């Protein structure tokens, strides 16, 4: 083959490059994108990108993987040329790839890397877990061919026309802006499969070398974290040519189902341990196929299946539909059955008084809710009362001879306590319920939690309690997600989290205990629209916890109880 230094992407860039009139001054933006073949993003959700020695500034970041194992990060560099080491743990071993960049006539450059986690299978050169995968560069040994590339059958192809470039352009209508992954698959030899990312205008561009005079290219994208797959395709003729393939985030199919307690086919009476599902999915392109996932390996392709259970607990059910136009959509919901095999209602109509006492705190660093400090001699009491018909009346007994009928009162104690704080709630239907807890502060004015019976009264300076509804008023929550739901609550093993994200983002999920300690953390990627997650909390001790959903400086929190 003819010798062209660097990767295929570098060669294309050189061919399209305009004459440079001097190197731009730093800082420079280097976009590192790539994919991990054979990864499990739910188990290992990120890759590590680190600068090589001599590349400045020194950087070492964890970059989240999306649902198709792709990643992208923009790094600000001062070195006009350098390299990065990308690493990922694969099957007990660390896979690494080094990728280089060089600033020429623009202060922005993009580089791409591919990691292979399928270590049980050799690559096209026979190396276990190697990077010589289909679609990557090779050498066919012919000096008269161009842009040699491994085919899906591990044959090294070389082209005879150096100008046979195909450019795929398009817009992902309704995407959240820059950073939405778009997967490109060419359906002709040797076959490329790459991921590019949209810009701020939701547009994308991909250029590849064609070994055939005609062919087809397929474009896949998702606007909701993988729940809905959008697939479009287009044809090309001998290059250089441009193929325009636009996609829309408005799905043409929607998965949907409801469920009820099973019925006896003869008597029509409800029966335990059986759940009937009603399919309410829709599509504009028939026929539609259904795949039900009931967990633990149990699946069904029926339109309206029934599920027979053998034990109590929480079950997460997912339905994936596929229509004849290539649209795929997934909907998940959870159900809980008790020890007798009956569905547990999501919302109880019984009124339930309750509150949670926590130390008051304030943000130390503006915009970073993870750095906080306690506020001495002040505690917050979250009014957690729920159920009933919603027409509540409250009666607070502060344990020092005073009381209040406000829903969210403020009260000042004369000493550090302990005091017996009690809340009684009554709804419009006559339901009444009470809850009590003891409150006190230590010599530093900090909340001491539950007081052991028989402990003498501590004559310290007084403190203030402020009863609030959902969130402490001293912290400004920036809502970037809507319709946040946690279920079941209280929870024993697995808690479901669903929300509607207002934008595509890298997201962190952090669980704090009553002392503000992090007991669980995870990173993931979400797209605009509905997102569903499952969090295993079986190892947590019984008690109250706070789940924080964060995206950089944006965050929101929800409470839950572990039984």
Description:
- This protein is mostly beta strands and 563 residues long.
- The protein folds into four domains: 8-160, Immunoglobulins (Immunoglobulin-like), CATH 2.60.40; 253-337, Immunoglobulins (Immunoglobulin-like, Sandwich), CATH 2.60.40; 355-468, Sandwich (Immunoglobulin-like); 481-562, Immunoglobulin-like, CATH 2.60.40.
- Helix content is 2%, strand content 51%.
- The strands form eleven sheets. Strands 12-11-14-15-26-25-22-23 form an eight-stranded antiparallel β-sheet, with no helix packed on it. The protein has a four-stranded antiparallel β-sheet with strand order 3-2-5-6, with no helix packed on it. Strands 10, 13, 16 and 17 form a four-stranded mixed β-sheet that branches.
- The longest helix has 9 residues, at 8-16.
Topology:
Blueprint: H1 8-16, E1 28-37, E2 46-51, E3 60-64, E4 70-77, E5 81-90, E6 93-102, E7 108-116, E8 146-150, E9 156-159, E10 165-173, E11 181-186, E12 193-197, E13 203-209, E14 215-221, E15 228-236, E16 241-244, E17 247-248, E18 253-254, E19 257-263, E20 270-279, E21 282-283, E22 288-293, E23 299-300, E24 306-308, E25 313-323, E26 328-337, E27 355-365, E28 368-383, E29 393-397, E30 403-404, E31 410-412, E32 419-426, E33 432-439, E34 464-468, E35 481-487, E36 494-501, E37 505-512, E38 518-526, E39 529-536, E40 543-551, E41 554-562
Parallel strand pairs: 1-7, 10-16, 10-17, 28-34
Antiparallel strand pairs: 1-4, 2-3, 2-5, 5-6, 8-9, 10-13, 11-12, 11-14, 14-15, 15-26, 18-21, 19-20, 20-24, 22-23, 22-25, 25-26, 27-28, 29-30, 29-32, 31-34, 32-33, 35-36, 36-39, 37-38, 37-40, 40-41
